[in-house]
Specification:
Blueprint: H1 2-6, H2 8-25, H3 27-32, H4 34-63, H5 66-98, H6 117-125, H7 129-135, H8 141-147, H9 150-168, H10 174-194, H11 198-212, H12 214-220, H13 222-247, H14 251-257, H15 259-268, H16 275-284, H17 289-302, H18 305-321, H19 328-341, H20 351-363, H21 378-404, H22 409-418
Helix pairs in contact: 2-11, 2-15, 4-9, 4-10, 4-11, 4-17, 5-13, 5-17, 5-18, 5-19, 5-21, 6-20, 9-17, 11-15, 13-18, 13-21, 15-21, 16-17, 16-21, 17-21, 18-19, 18-20, 18-21, 19-20
């Protein structure tokens, strides 16, 4: 028991339970504790850009083979698109089977479109594909770090890595590469300090969620919430479980291995809060530094399994709740549109809700104002999205490492078996 309380896993779990009690019993106090959760997430996000840059640039420089980097990235994108499409189809199938919105008979006139107007405005700004492609290129090298946009940081890091590789051929880059590794180690050391505050952040975030929205709002849309959580659990257990088995490791052992990250993600409702820690654990599991640095951050933009499940389920829920009939062609259109829009709001606050607005706007059949119906439970759904996205990206990184033939199977088995007891 003492070991459990001293472990980060135990502390975060206790903090989540206490935060939930405070938010339920004293809602105003729970809402006032919101800055604790926000501060922790901001501290982690502050460190993500330099860690990704140092990891990717240093890794690409040491690989020094542009074709292998391109092959790695291409395989990652193929995997991301395949699994994301499966997630969309699973969400669609469950929504059509269970019909969580049936019987609501909601009239659009009774809803308040103003409540979701800000999300709709952001969705319209991001609707252009060309704008999204141009957004990957930062205005300046430093602006990529200032905004913290992962895709922009990745682009700068890859270019810097190729530049270092070119210098390395002349013997001029050894000091720079060593410096990058030292700076990266420094930021990982800072992460280890910051993550000790995870219980405080999880406590504040959970207290705010239940204090602001309460169990009452959750109960009103229990069908949708249960549908999203059950579908995500089904996807993780069946789809990701089968993928992990095919690669040669146990998904359940992997989930136990990243249990601290799962709880932090659950409490903070943000998968970015555990990106650096997840990258470190994936390296310890036998995935090379360069591959982890490239694939895992890219997955946070392109491999959003939880977001995809949410998109199709929420879209069908709103159609059913407002008695909007959808033909087979329109349902297939939703899958196609969601496949694109799920990539459009990466790194944007409220990304899941914004991508839903983008999807509804593109489909054009379901009134966007209907989004106000699920605004009250989006925070609960966001937590499920974040956890599912994180698990999917962890599994995806190991899959790409295995596909590339660079996964250290001995390290993988040793780490997963060695962490079966509480640390």
């Amino acid at each position: 028991m003492i070991r459990f309380v001293r472990s980060l896993f135990g502390q975060v779990l206790i903090a989540i339970v206490l935060g939930g009690l405070v938010g339920t019993l004293w809602p105003h106090l729970g809402v006032a504790l919101k800055p604790l959760g926000d501060a922790f997430v901001k501290l982690i996000k502050m460190l993500i850009a330099p860690i990704v840059f140092c990891t990717v640039a240093g890794g690409v420089a040491k690989v020094s083979d542009a074709r292998s980097i391109g092959r790695m990235g291409g395989r990652a994108l193929i995997y991301f698109e395949a699994v994301s499409t499966i997630a969309l189809i699973v969400g669609m199938a469950v929504g059509l089977t269970l019909k969580p919105g049936a019987g609501f008979n909601v009239s659009i006139a009774t809803l308040s479109p103003a409540a979701v107007s800000s999300y709709v405005a952001q969705a319209h700004k991001m609707a252009s594909v060309s704008d999204e492609l141009l957004r990957i290129i930062p205005d300046t090298v430093m602006s990529a770090f200032a905004t913290g946009d992962l895709l922009q940081v990745l682009l700068v890091a890859i270019l810097a890595g190729f530049g270092l590789a070119a210098l390395a051929r002349d013997g001029r880059a050894a000091g720079l590469i060593h410096g990058l590794e030292t700076v990266g180690a420094l930021f990982f050391a800072v992460i280890r300090i910051v993550v000790r505050a995870a219980p405080i952040g999880a406590f504040g975030a959970m207290a705010f969620t239940l204090g602001q929205y309460g169990l009452t709002s959750l109960a009103k849309l229990a069908a949708l919430t249960a549908c999203v959580y059950l579908t995500s659990a089904l996807f993780v257990a069946v789809v990701l479980g089968a993928i992990a088995w095919a690669v040669g490791f146990s998904l359940w052992r992997f989930l136990f291995y990243i249990r601290e990250e799962l709880l932090i993600c659950l409490g903070a409702s943000a998968s970015e809060a555990v990106l650096p820690q997840l990258m470190q654990k994936l390296e310890r599991l036998g995935a090379p530094n360069a591959l982890v640095g490239l694939v895992t951050p890219a997955g946070y933009s392109f491999n959003l399994d939880g977001t995809n499940i949410y998109l199709t389920l929420a879209t069908l829920f709103l159609a059913q709740a407002t008695n909007t009939h959808l033909s087979l062609a329109q349902e297939l259109t939703i899958v196609g549109v969601a496949m694109l829009t799920s990539k459009g709001a990466a790194g944007v606050t409220g990304a899941g809700f914004i991508t839903l607005a983008m999807t509804l706007a593109a489909v054009g059949t379901i009134p966007i104002g209907a989004m106000a119906l699920i605004l009250g439970v989006d925070r609960f759904l966001s937590t499920c999205r974040a956890v599912t996205n994180m698990i999917g990206n962890g599994v995806g990184t190991l899959v790409i490492a295995r596909w590339e033939g660079v996964l250290d199977r001995e390290a993988l088995n040793r780490e997963l078996r060695g962490r079966l007891r509480l640390s």
